[in-house]
Amino acid sequence: MDGSAESSSLADALFKLLEELCTLQHGRTVLSPQELMHAMNDYIPDFNLTSQQDAEEALSHLLSSLREELSDSYVPGCSSFADVTALPDYRVLGLKKSRQSERERWRQFFIGPFNGILCSSLTCQSCSFQISLDFQLFQTLHLLPVANSDGNIVGRCSVVDCLERFLVAEQLENYCCFRCWHIAAIKYASKMCEDQIVIEKLKLCHELDSCNCKNMSCLREMPCPNRFWRTFKQYSVAHSPQILCIHLQRASVNAFGEIVKLQGHISFPLVLDMAPFTKTQVGTKTRGEGGKQICPAKQQSAQQHFPLPNASNLQHVKDMPNGIVRKPETLSSYAKDGGESGEEEKHIYSLVSVVEHFGRVGSGHYIVYRRVAPSISRDNHTGSSQEQWYCISDSQVDVVSEKEVLDAEASLLFYEKVYAL
């Protein structure tokens, strides 16, 4: 590689390769990703292009390296101290040592095209109280298919089945709902000690899990029935990404502790509706109930302790041209409102690419199915007016049918969000 290639940034190298891949060639052309791999070497030194690589791991390395490069090039915004007076409802506070730097916050809450937001909710079945909400970024959904004792994927397994399995509620053992405990404590105190001061303190307690109400002398003997332990944890998609990457985890460990590949077909649709798996649609469901709703995720009590920002404070969240969430502390607001517009977020996706692996764990061969959208130039009206699927296997490129694509034993699926139907 020459010196210019060595100084090429990862983003530039990736853009150049993608531009070459998207350019229509009239003859056979060989494209090399070596410049891109060389740029990745600054971030992932152990990533060797000449050795066997896992496709999902390579994608993860690429996205994380891009994220690191973008954060390294971040320049904090500078403004006059006098501008602070023009900001409504703001206070000037001294910088705390434990506070993250502006660059660290930018890196943590950068929303790129592959980035979605997962919501982890903790809900009590007894009182339907939403105990907690936790939001985290993701760039790939890792789904584990259902396999039988022979290490094969069960028949008629689909991506929707895998999504339901991933997002189903899991019961937490020996977890006491503090809201249920406070309700029971009020009843217990009213019956056993009749101390109005204690009862009023319990009624006015808003700290719940961090309070010291259990240390009250009249409540130390109060039993904690098992019904307080019916608490469920569940994931849902709070913000769907522009590009949804689904990794079907075919690597598994057998009874002998060996890593094997799960064989079998997992069906996937050309159009995927993620609305049933979003935070506003998902109820608390358990595997044992076969998808039956156990309790609705009511938020009337949770709003008092875990307020979710709405359109009235949406001005604190700005989806900037480069994808930055301006105020990272309002990530939950971004997840709830779907960005800057405040309009209802769309969750319809169209399949654009499929990656299939042949061979065993640690070795084998990858092929890619890619959908090409119709394109008719202004000067040339002979372009295709229909979408076409291609199969790419190293230097071999063939036109394939939708049926061939849907019959693939996919490892990676790429869906693009549809904004207009």
Short description:
By secondary structure, the chain is an alpha+beta fold. Helix content is 23%, strand content 22%. Among the domains are: 140-169 and 238-277 and 346-374 and 385-420, Alpha-Beta Complex (Cathepsin B, Chain A), CATH 3.90.70; 176-228, no CATH class.
Describe the structure.
Helix 2 (10-21) packs antiparallel against helix 3 (34-40) and helix 7 runs antiparallel to helix 8 (196-204). It is built from 11 helices and 16 strands. With 421 residues, it is an alpha+beta fold. It has helices spanning 3-6, 10-21, 34-40, 55-72, 102-108, 159-167, 178-192, 196-204, 302-305, 331-337, 402-406; strands spanning 116-124, 130-138, 141-143, 170-172, 231-239, 243-248, 251-253, 259-261, 271-273, 284-285, 293-295, 348-358, 365-372, 388-393, 396-400, 410-417. The two termini are 46 Å apart. It is elongated, with a radius of gyration of 26 Å. Among the domains are: 140-169 and 238-277 and 346-374 and 385-420, Cathepsin B, Chain A; 176-228, no CATH class. Strand 1 (116-124) and strand 2 form a beta hairpin. The relative contact order is 0.12. Strands 3, 6, 9, 12, 13, 14, 15 and 16 form an 8-stranded mixed sheet that branches. Strands 2-1-5-4 form a 4-stranded antiparallel sheet. The chain has a two-stranded antiparallel sheet with strand order 7-8. Residues 1-418 form the USP domain. One of its GO terms (molecular function) is cysteine-type deubiquitinase activity. InterPro entries: Papain-like_cys_pep_sf, Peptidase_C19, Peptidase_C19_UCH, USP, USP_CS. Its EC number is 3.4.19.12. One of its GO terms (cellular component) is nucleus.
